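Help needed: design a sequence for this.
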């Protein structure tokens, strides 16, 4: 999203996200790249009734875990911001996750990121200093170094969010959906993202499928203004023989791959489907994939059409 700082809209803290006192405490760990929106995300968690703690010294993380475990009524919802300012971020994450899991609490790790050009623009607009700038001399170099330092943390995250093109409302929706996920649900939590190649590939993608080889409804006057959610566009895209062959091969691939991902312990999989503008073909195909997944009962399925609000 262009500007994450004008924060997200307030959300009611009415227990709708599972705040019952009989439930175990929920600890969210907010991490990711500087400039990717951790401040806005922390504000969202505050609005949801979380105790938000920003970059506690790593020495205090075991004490925090003990506090949450011994007083779950008071600390039923806790959000901890953790990033390169703590020093060794992977070590700090491992320490707090280990301390919490040792007390029967499984934290949910949110990793926020954005494209380099977006991060550079945000630092220029806000005039904030990158925390690594002093040692590296340039914002671009600092971002590259931070990506390397946090790669291990990224690999351990439960939820990856690319904020490059998100509005405050969209960020809120992504966080809210992730909080509603039931970690006890069997299967892999599946997220589908549609996008336009001219706007960039979503960073959080595990798998990317390019459907630009299909005939484009954009060049049909009666279809240009309609999205891939409409029956007319879906019929136009899905009736193509090349589309039917692609979907048949894709179904065969997922029948093999999704159980394999689950066997390897992967709890979330993000599949992105792209076309030129992200408005016609990618949406029609992703909706068809989502229907297949739900029929096969692979696990919970979310779908997000990234470019839908652009038109």
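Sure. Designed sequence:
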């Amino acid at each position: 999203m262009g500007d994450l700082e004008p924060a997200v809209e307030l959300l009611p803290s009415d227990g709708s996200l599972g705040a019952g006192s009989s439930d175990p405490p929920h600890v969210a760990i907010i991490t990711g790249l500087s400039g990717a929106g951790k401040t806005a995300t922390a504000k969202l968690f505050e609005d949801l009734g979380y105790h938000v703690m920003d970059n506690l010294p790593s020495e205090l993380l075991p004490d925090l875990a003990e506090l949450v475990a011994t007083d779950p009524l008071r600390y039923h919802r806790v959000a901890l911001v953790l990033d390169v300012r703590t020093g060794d971020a992977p070590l700090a994450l491992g320490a707090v996750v280990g301390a919490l899991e040792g007390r029967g609490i499984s934290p949910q790790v949110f990793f926020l990121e954005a494209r380099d050009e977006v991060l550079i623009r945000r630092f220029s607009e806000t005039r904030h200093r990158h925390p690594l700038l002093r040692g590296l001399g340039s914002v671009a170099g600092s971002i590259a170094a931070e990506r390397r330092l946090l790669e291990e943390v990224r690999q351990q995250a439960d939820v990856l969010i690319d904020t490059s093109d998100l509005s405050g409302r969209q960020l809120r929706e992504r966080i809210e959906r992730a909080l509603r996920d039931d970690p006890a649900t069997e299967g892999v939590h599946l997220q589908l993202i549609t996008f336009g190649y001219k706007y960039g590939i979503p960073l959080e993608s595990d798998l990317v499928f390019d459907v630009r080889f299909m005939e484009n409804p954009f060049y049909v006057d009666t279809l240009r203004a309609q999205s891939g959610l409409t029956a007319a566009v879906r019929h136009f895209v899905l009736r193509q023989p090349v589309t039917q062959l692609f979907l048949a091969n894709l179904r065969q691939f997922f029948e093999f791959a999704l159980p394999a991902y689950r066997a390897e312990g992967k709890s979330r999989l993000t599949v992105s489907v792209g076309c030129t503008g992200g408005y016609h073909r990618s949406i029609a195909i992703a909706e068809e994939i989502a229907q297949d997944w739900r029929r096969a009962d692979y696990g919970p399925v979310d779908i997000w059409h990234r470019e839908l609000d652009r038109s």
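Residues 189-310 form one domain.
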